[in-house]
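User: Show me an example of a complex going from sequences to structure tokens.

Assistant: Sure. Here are the input components:
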Amino acid sequence: MWAAHAVTDEDRLDRTETARVLRRSLQFAQPYRRTIWWAIALVSVGTVCTVSGPVFVKLGLDEGITGQRATALNVAVACFVGTVIIGYLVGRLQYLAINRAGEGFLRDLRVAVFDRLQAQSMAFFDRNKAGVLVSRMTADIESMGELIQWGLLQFVAAGLLLVMTLILMVALSWELTLVVVLFVAPILGAASVRFQRQSNRAYLDVRERVGQNLSNLQEGIAGVRVIQAYGREVEQQRRFFASNRALYGSHLHSVKISTWYFGLVEWAGIVSIALVVGVGGLLVHRGSVEFGTVAAFVLLLSNLFDPVQQLSQLYNTVQSAAAALHKLYTLVDNVPDVAEHPKPVTLPPTGRLTAHHITFHYEGSERPALHEVSLSVAPGERLALVGPTGAGKSTLAQLLSRLYDPTSGYVSFADVDLRVASLLSLRERVVVVPQEGFLFGGTIRDNIRIARPSATDDEVAAALAAIGALDRFDEFPEGLDTEVRERGSRLSAGERQLVSLARAALVDPAVLVLDEATSNLDPGTEAVVERALERLMQGRTVIVVAHRLSTVRRADRIAVIDHARLVELGTHDELVVRGGRYAALAQAWARSQPAAEGTAGH
Amino acid sequence: MLREQRAGLLAGVGIGLLWSAGKVAVPKLTRLAVDRAVLGNESLLFWSSMIAAVAVVAGVFVGWRRWIAFRESRFTEAKLREQLFAHIMRLHVAYHDRTQTGQLMSRASSDLMQIQGFVVMIPMTASNLAMVLAIVVVLAVQQPLLALVALAPLPLLNVLAMRFSRRIHPAVLAVQAEQAQLATVVEEAVSGVRVLKGFGAEAVTAARLRTEADDIRTVSLQAARVRSAFLPALDLLPNLGLIAVLAIGGHRVLNGQMSRGEMLEFMQYIGLLIVPLRSIGMTVAFGQRAAAALLRVNEVLSTVPLVADPEPAARQRRLPDGAAGATTDGTTGRGEVWFRGVCFGYDPAAPVLRGLDLRIPSGTSVAVVGATGGGKSTLARLLVRFYDVDAGAIFIDGVDVRDLALADLRHAVSIVFEDTFLFHDTVAANIAFARPDAAQADVERAARLSGAHDFIQQLPDGYGTLLGERGYSLSGGQRQRVALARAILADPRVLVLDDATSAVDPSKEHEIREAMATVVSGRTTIVIAHRPGTIALADTVVLLDDGTVAATGTHDELLATSQRYREVLAALAETDDEPTGIDEPAATAGSS
């Protein structure tokens, strides 16, 4: 509950970064500037109301009571009532105003970050962990949500309250103000700065221990079967207890820090009352201040102490929000590296797909993933890519469909360089069907329509019919409107692949790039998927990253990729006769299926 | 649960009361100082020193109260978490099957946090209550009428704080729910980026995200409306008390019925009441949430582990000693397994095994073949008592597994699971999981046997390489070989391989099968064969069909005699078109 936001050293922004965060924030806040000005005005009025309470008490005491004028007292009371009511109304409005601006700002930020995220190239997604990207959009933005819901208001209000209280105190009695400030400022200031630093460090420590403890906990629960199977419950418990006790220690340490700070603040608060009464009393005796001023000071002291504490708490929150914003703006300002050409060309309906001496490096890797690969696939031809793990088959497939751009060389379709092709026409001509059928939340129909959002219901049904899978989904009680649930858990693995194939059918592309699934399906579905795939491939150029002998045998030509190079290219028979890599691979296949003889029935 | 903390919490309450006394004394002293020193002739220094002295008392005790409150509550939390973890480790597998990891995680994290949040408030609330009572009494005795008017709005503060806490809670939950939905969209878009890019379908997810972002804004503004309805009112109420004191008190002072110091005292008391009254209101709402959390935690703690050591202890038996690597012919050796009339179903209405009889002589290996979902893996789970049989019994070397201490049973049987689980620890520690004190040489010998030694040596830190979620990630085949080494090092009487070679590169699979043959020889081994290739490892084959053993014999015999065996094999083979390889660099680059 204290210092709920900690700032690591990397999070601290330098001057130029801070300036950038401010500039970009102002740009994002542009649509809400009226609301923001309105909110600032409301907060100012509200603070004036808060501060003026003790002033009316003073007036009532001095003019009314000491001056023995009942009317003055009544006027002071009436004014107090007025400011309290205004303060209440303004208070209601300021929450709404700040939140309207703040939530609008966050909404725009979410949309902008996400749009820019999606525009990034595949290389970007390789480079950045999925978890980090998701947390940009969630944790980072949410942490600012808290700031906006209460922090920003408090920050502004606390600052204003502090300033106005000081001004008011000086106006009432500069001597008394001097005494209070000379005593309070050094102690409270130094203590708050020290506490803020210490608690930040302590909180970072707690946060890290919490993380460790949670992952130990999670590991224990997720691995409970293995732990029980090997009878390691006690050992595992010992490990967890150790991290749990370490966390307890960190918690205690952070409480220790707040203990002295809270004690000090409490002490200083009461001592300053003693000071005001003592010194104020002297001044009253000398006749330089009235008694009401002393009373007002006693009441105003809390206006001085509360904001200082709030500001020191908020300091971390604001800093970590600035750090989060910095990361977000960096993402928003990141220019995608696979972007559409300024003068895009629409690709012709059919043509040869050709790789011209393409070389490709994954970012940060010295070895090329592909080296000087050239090949050409004729319309309607079926090419299988084979080779050992990590040789570069999938990389080649992804370059051929421009999920990446080659480091050197280029890929062309019907003699048009893919880099100048319009992204729209490229995605219509060349479609990649990934290994596993990845499903999004929503219905089966929604999932197929991902491929062409403008498609009608009939077209979706037609795509399914084209691959012979319409009946399978029509049998569902809710048909194509069946919700697939999280990650498509409602459907079997085979059904998910059918949806994936139907997407491709809906686009009706000239070229199909397939990354064949390595995992197994249940036999019944396997056959349905095979048939659907066969129908989808009819009449199209097909490039398939093959993991199965049966798939390889059905290809017109086979390209063997090894160590980032194209080492063999030809038909099955040619390559077997040649006795090279492919021949060896084909033999390994045969050997690894000793028990399956006579049963490989397809 | 709070028994251990009772003394500490009582001390906290006591210290809190002392703090309250100090706090209550301040306005009183201020009044005396004002009336006698500021407006009278007594010593200013004396009276201000009195106030300053109370400042020390209040400062010390407020810190002390805080320290005790947090120490006790954090201790309660840590203790409960340890109890939970220890209990979860002992709960039967069927419980874990139907309980999601996330659920147990939130029992041990967010639920405990709510309990901690409440425990911390116990000493705070007690002293706050005492302070409120003391102030009310002081005011009522001095100026009953004024006290009544000034304090009248304050109970509302308590009511409002309580209602606010209740109203804001669902609003906050709604915001969290919407945030979770947005997170799902983002997560899908990032994980499914290949699909989206492949079809150029970014606009679809972008539209979804806009909907979710708008929803978040809507519910957040609803929460803001709740805040705007309550928070300014919470600020307003104490001011009403101040105004009452000024209006009524002022006139009483004018009439000479009250001193000016007393009026200032009243005002200070009203200021003092604000925080305690608010927090008492919050405590009530907190307490309700903590009670619900405690109920959920207790539900886990009170679940009795269904699979436990034999009760009474007298029933417990030990496995007979037998020479290691005993003969393959008799039942007197080490590691004989006997399933006798075993019936079992995860759901009693849908039995998986119906009176299965199977006797595996010690030192022999058996491949269990059957259709998917036919109960092959279930055999292994029953053998180590992940579940108990519904009827019948399972014996190891003539002892019913239910009569063995769990530790003994699980020491005697090792399973290599279909999906391997590695811990965030070094490779060596993962292999030595069953025997943490194993010598490095033994670890390496096990790794050699499982074919893991070569690739382990190529890892950045060899056997010292950290694995797991936050460490180095191995490929599926490598993980299985580490798991296999783990089982080998455990040196069990009975080894169960649940398709331990399914994710292995075919070029390597050959080597591993040879290594496996060494491991298997002379040891009772059950191979759960999901693929035809694995069958070759075993001496005999058992065909599982319709919950019983349908046929037994060598692979060739069954191939020749059993039509059903040929069908099952064909179905397995169809899914067993050997992959040429796994783990393309693009895929690993994306996930690393």
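The lines above are the inputs; the final block is the predicted structure for all two components together. The longest strand of chain B covers residues 337-344.
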